[in-house]
Design a protein that fits this description.
Blueprint (H helix, E strand, L loop, with lengths): L21 E3 L2 E3 L21 H13 L26 E2 L3 E3 L29 H9 L4 E7 L2 E6 L10 E7 L10 E6 L4 E7 L3 H4 L7 E7 L1 H8 L3 H21 L3 E5 L5 H8 L12 E3 L8 E10 L9 H12 L7 E2 L6 E3 L1 H9 L30 H7 L12 E2 H9 L27 E7 L2 E2 L4 E5 L6 H7 L18 E6 L3 H7 L11 E8 L1 H7 L3 H22 L3 E5 L4 H8 L6 E10 L8 E3 L10
Parallel strand pairs: 16-18
Antiparallel strand pairs: 1-2, 3-14, 4-9, 5-6, 5-24, 7-8, 7-10, 8-9, 10-13, 11-13, 12-15, 17-19, 17-21, 19-20, 21-23, 22-23
Helix pairs in contact: 1-8, 4-5, 5-14
Length: 618
């Protein structure tokens, strides 16, 4: 029996438009140039990143844009016979079962809003705490079934529920789990760890504070490309961001902090997770039996450590040397399972992935104290419990077109979307979960307000890095108001651009999807783009998507905490969004869309417990 997963994006659908210009909400959408300026006045890229890498990233980004007249290249239809297995397994690798329980390590259970004010005291690394960490971040959350179709859902969201992200743990020994330090792959269907290798105790002891462990993330591009074609590289990196956000929140409830080890290079990450593939980038698109494209592209490593331990440093050169010394000699257990019989290799994905491979760098590692986020009122969250919100997160399929959010709730959600926390100038990533990132915020939000009681309908802009404010205002339309809306908290940098009903515009910009207009508000995440790539190198391209994914994870949790729902939208018309704002060129680019509102529940779909689930890979 062929099992079909449930999907929420439909980029393969095409809509013709008879006109070359469009008017919505009194704003004219005009054709604009998307050619990179690449002018001599731009700052030269550092020597470690070639101009060819930057050009490839710009080429990929422009080539994979959707617009009113054509979509990015994708499959003409879905090859259900070769739908990728959503669960990577390492055959013959010893299985280390984790606890499958809803029992609470935190007594009494933490309220959702409390985590954004301060973390609880740190828990030790035990079988129970590691079990809860994965259970509340990357595990299955439920199974869904209707008719002849059954599919699984996970705590961490994924575009199309395809889940290209794989996770690894590098841990000290844990009593009743493993008697030595180890590397393991997380298997979400079994909620278990697959032992890949045992490592010397001194590796973690000599490099990180006591009570620390590492998490590694990798991406299987084929899982997304099977449905989305060339645009899949974007979605894979959205999902890396979702996963980073999910583990940061889950760590926080255990009193653990998380930081990306962003000085490590691609080869360091390969060794750390045991992922060497030998994959050679093809020169053209290929189709057939291509098992080599099921390889895992290592994305990043995170260090998880107890709060309150004070400052500590990471010497990336020493860490890289130790990884080479220790991990190159390991005996790796298990062989990766096959995901599909036949494949389509979208060459532009792998060329771009090659261009954003990061070398070892001497990035500074800084442990900043987490800053509390702004709070208008705890009543907004209806005494929601953190673990309940984490595990009931779902992606809405439809919105009810009626529910109105209160203005206070809207402002509260946006306060938790700020990177720097309460009373701070926004820019530095200091608040949960954004503090995991080592760079200043690069992502802002264009909002379309549809149904917020006490706030006029219109377009608004949330400035998440106030150092960008003057530049954004200069680059966007002269007719925009840039006024603080009524009742807006003083430390929330939200500005009204234009009044009016923008529902039709929001729907059309998001590939004509009604869900973008039927909720309380929708938004496009707009990143400082070309200058960021030039200043910080081509490898910032996926990292910009990670930042949008973390912001999306916060929006998911916030929506559920106030009693409604949300959905990430990967299908949108890129340049028409820029045209609405009046943006020219590539200074700022829209990288992810989102919608928040009251969901319509499909009563034909039945929910089943996550564990034990059906004996199927779906």
């Amino acid at each position: 029996m062929q099992l079909h997963l449930h999907y929420r994006f439909f980029p393969s659908l095409h809509f013709a438009s008879p006109a070359t210009t469009f008017r919505f909400a009194n704003c004219k959408l005009r054709k604009i140039s998307t050619t990179s300026s690449m002018s001599s006045s731009s700052s030269a890229p550092p020597s470690s990143s070639s101009e060819e890498d930057l050009n490839q990233v710009i080429k990929y980004h422009n080539q994979t844009k959707h617009n009113f007249f054509n979509y990015a290249k994708g499959p003409n239809g879905l090859d259900w016979a070769n739908q990728p297995n959503p669960f990577r397994r390492y055959i013959s690798s010893p299985l280390l079962p984790l606890e499958q329980t809803e029992s609470l390590i935190n007594e009494p259970p933490l309220s959702y809003s409390s985590l954004f004010h301060s973390l609880p005291s740190s828990k030790p690394i035990t079988h129970s705490t590691i079990s809860q960490f994965f259970y509340d971040s990357l595990a299955l959350s439920a199974w869904k079934t209707t008719g002849f179709s059954t599919w699984s859902l996970r705590v961490n969201p994924s575009s199309g529920n395809l889940h290209p992200t794989e996770a690894y743990i590098i841990s000290p020994k844990i009593s009743s789990l493993c008697n030595s330090s180890f590397v393991a792959h997380y298997a979400p269907k079994q909620h278990s760890l697959e032992l890949r290798a045992e490592i010397p105790e001194v590796f973690l002891q000599n490099l990180f504070p006591e009570g620390s462990f590492l998490i590694g993330f990798s991406s299987i591009f084929w899982r997304e490309a099977w449905k989305y074609g060339e645009r899949a590289f974007r979605y894979c990196n959205h999902d890396v961001g979702h996963a980073i956000g999910a583990v940061t929140i889950a760590a926080g409830e255990l009193g653990w902090d998380v930081k990306i080890l962003d000085g490590l290079g691609y080869s360091d990450l390969e060794k750390l997770m045991g992922l060497g593939s030998g994959f050679k980038v093809p020169s053209v698109r290929k189709k057939g039996k291509l098992p080599e494209i099921e390889f895992e592209h290592p994305d990043c490593a995170l260090v998880v450590f107890p709060i309150g331990i004070g400052e500590f440093s990471v010497d990336y050169e020493k860490l890289s040397l130790k990884i080479s010394e220790v991990f190159s000699e390991l005996e790796w257990k298990g062989k990766a399972n096959a995901l599909s019989k036949e494949h389509v290799c979208w060459d532009v994905i792998y060329k771009t992935a090659e261009s954003v491979k990061k070398p070892l760098t001497r990035d500074g590692f800084c442990v900043n104290s987490l800053q509390r986020s702004g709070l208008i009122s705890d009543e907004v969250y209806r005494e929601s419990k953190l673990r309940e919100i984490i595990r009931k997160r779902r992606s809405a399929v439809d919105m009810d077109k009626k529910y109105e959010m209160e203005r206070e709730t809207f402002y509260q959600i946006l306060l938790h979307c700020l990177p720097s926390g309460e009373g701070e100038k926004q820019g530095k990533q200091l608040a949960l979960p954004f503090g995991v990132l080592p760079w200043d915020a690069e992502v802002h939000a264009l909002l379309f307000v549809h149904r917020v009681n006490g706030l006029k309908k219109g377009s608004y802009f949330l400035v998440r890095n106030e150092d960008h404010f003057d530049e954004i205002k200069r680059l966007t339309r002269n007719e925009f108001e840039w006024e603080k809306p009524e009742g807006c908290p003083a430390d929330l940098p939200l500005y009204r651009l234009a009044l009016g009903d923008h529902a039709a515009l929001a729907q059309r910009l998001s590939c004509h999807q009604e869900i973008a207009s039927d909720g309380c508000f929708s938004l496009g995440m707009v990143a400082r783009f070309e200058l960021t790539l030039r200043e910080k190198n081509a490898w910032m391209y996926p990292r910009l998507f990670w930042e949008t994914g973390i912001l999306g994870q916060v929006l998911y949790l916030e929506a559920h905490a106030v009693g409604i729902s949300a959905t990430g939208i990967g299908c949108y018309f890129d340049d028409p969004v820029h045209s609405y704002l009046g943006l020219q060129g590539l200074e700022y680019q829209s990288l992810y869309h989102f919608t928040v509102g009251s969901p319509v529940v499909d009563k034909r779909i039945m929910s089943l417990p996550a564990y034990p689930g059906p004996d199927m890979d779906a």
